[in-house]
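Task: sequence design from structure.
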């Protein structure tokens, strides 16, 4: 049972917080006059203010962060069900966040057209985190402080999701990240995923290389400075060895956004590798790694993870033949009626082809719908969390069951480029 703080207590907490921050700001300003580094002083003041803001948000929601607002977050006394979203709609990853929001909105529109959830219309409150962890935290806290918000979709990228993860637990607010694949993110309490983890797709790629491509010798190239690149790369190498493949060479770059890889690729070419696994983003693998691999004489397979989605290419599209990547969804999967229905609806609403991020966003809303329906007409934040834990779900991006850590063990789509165009290759089901 969560204790409810009286209104007078809430007001007092806010007053005390304000007093504390004023005192501390004054102290730091005095120290600054005495020679404290200005940049450090400003940073300390900001941190103190942020801490006080968090306390105030907790107070406004009916108690401390540990004594969360989850008891008040309920659909019982409202004619609508409010869902929040935190996505990256500006900055370098804006294309991902915008696609997710398009998927969210399509799902909400479909749900409302069919009578809503438990007879109640769905309202979506969308926030832009700009790809920044602090912005994501602020946006999330605003949503969490609104007792009408029953669940949150997002954030978009792993860095912002990692910042939000502890806030989800503190506010006891179900949060489902559509595309944050990093293994390091703590999930399973109130944070869940629609996407598979980095390590999982690395393992699946290795199994595909061994069982479908029938290669014997593989090489790995990854960026050591990027958790995504290094995490997927290491997972692939480890799984490949377990499957009996010979890892003939492991190369790395200092970061995942270098532009010159010829030295590493020459070594890989000389190693006799039949497949190169290069887990980088679309903006690096496309214009740099793949053309440079071909320029040093490498003619084997190149394979990557979901970061290859939207691969940027040079004018010579023939360089990209024998390039494959794992992802969550394919518009060319004619075997899945859910996929085809989704594409039709998305095109009708947006006059564009849906990508992976739109599909993941779409599934995220339907996961929330399923959980709220199970929780019942008087659903609370806590009951929604209990309903989603261990959930089995059938969606556009695959069928899966959430594991104990809140991540899906799901099917993986493999696409192969043919003259620059990704084509559906196969769907790999989870290993039993």
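Answer:
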């Amino acid at each position: 049972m969560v204790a409810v703080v009286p209104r007078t207590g809430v007001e007092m907490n806010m007053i005390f917080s304000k007093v504390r921050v004023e005192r501390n700001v004054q102290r730091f300003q005095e120290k600054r006059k005495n020679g404290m580094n200005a940049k450090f002083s400003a940073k300390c003041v900001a941190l103190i203010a942020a801490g006080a803001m968090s306390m105030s948000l907790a107070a406004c929601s009916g108690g401390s962060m540990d004594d969360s607002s989850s008891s008040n977050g309920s659909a019982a006394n409202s004619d609508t069900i409010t869902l929040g979203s935190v996505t990256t709609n500006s900055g370098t990853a804006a294309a991902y966040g915008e696609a997710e929001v398009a998927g969210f909105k399509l799902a909400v529109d479909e749900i409302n057209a069919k009578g809503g959830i438990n007879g109640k219309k769905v309202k979506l409150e969308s926030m832009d985190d700009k790809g920044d962890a602090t912005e994501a935290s602020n946006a999330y806290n605003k949503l969490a402080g609104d007792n009408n918000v029953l669940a949150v979709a997002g954030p978009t990228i792993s860095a912002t999701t990692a910042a939000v993860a502890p806030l989800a637990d503190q506010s006891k607010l179900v949060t489902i990240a559509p595309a944050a694949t990093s293994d390091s993110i703590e999930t399973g309490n109130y944070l869940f995923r629609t996407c598979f983890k980095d390590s999982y797709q690395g393992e699946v790629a290795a199994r595909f290389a061994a069982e479908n491509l029938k290669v014997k010798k593989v090489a790995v190239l990854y960026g050591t400075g990027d958790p995504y690149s290094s995490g997927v790369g290491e997972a692939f190498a480890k799984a490949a060895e377990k499957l009996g493949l010979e890892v003939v060479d492991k190369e790395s770059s200092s970061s995942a956004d270098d532009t010159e890889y010829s030295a590493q690729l020459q070594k890989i070419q000389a190693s006799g590798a039949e497949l190169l696994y290069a887990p980088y983003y679309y903006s690096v693998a496309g214009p740099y790694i793949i053309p440079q691999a071909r320029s040093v004489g490498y003619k084997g397979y190149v394979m990557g993870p979901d970061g290859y989605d939207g691969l940027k290419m040079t004018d010579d599209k023939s360089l990209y033949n024998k390039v494959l990547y794992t992802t969550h969804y394919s518009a060319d999967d004619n075997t899945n009626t859910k996929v085809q229905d989704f594409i039709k609806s998305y095109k009708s609403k947006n006059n564009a082809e849906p990508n992976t991020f739109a599909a993941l966003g779409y599934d995220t809303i339907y996961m929330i719908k399923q959980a709220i329906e199970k929780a019942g007409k008087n659903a609370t934040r806590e009951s929604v969390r209990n309903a989603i834990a261990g959930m089995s779900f059938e969606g556009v991006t695959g069928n899966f069951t959430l594991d104990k850590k809140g991540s899906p063990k799901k099917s993986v789509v493999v696409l192969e480029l043919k003259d620059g165009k990704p084509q559906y290759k196969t769907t790999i089901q989870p290993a039993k």
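The radius of gyration is 24 Å.
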